[in-house]
Amino acid sequence: MSYIQPIFTRGCRYRVKQSFKSGPTSAFIAGEILVFERDSYSHYDNSFIYEFRSESSAETKEWWLLEGQSKELWRQYFEPLPEQA
What is the mean pLDDT of residues 19-44? Predict the structure, then answer.
């Protein structure tokens, strides 16, 4: 079992496709623009945790992916945005 499951690219921007909640405290709003910060793994929760920063509010948000879930699940929630020049 690898405790690293890279999905997102650090520093890249993503648009939230639908409103949803994840983890213990994060609420994502459709249309919100996020910048990916880092990923980690929670042994206690058996979950990969992907941390974003909201462009508009600078709030930190976490998307949790349970171990065993497909990493392709991210595409239901996030859309990568082209890099800014």
Answer: 96
Global pTM value: 0.90
Domain ranges of the chain: 13-69
- Biggest CA–CA distance in the chain, Å, is 41
Instruction: Name the token pair of 62.
Output: 């976490």
- CA–CA gap between residue 10 and residue 29 (Å, rounded): 21
**Radius of gyration from C-alpha coordinates of the chain:** 12
Coil/strand/helix, residue 39: strand
Number of Cβ within a 10 Å radius of residue 19: 12
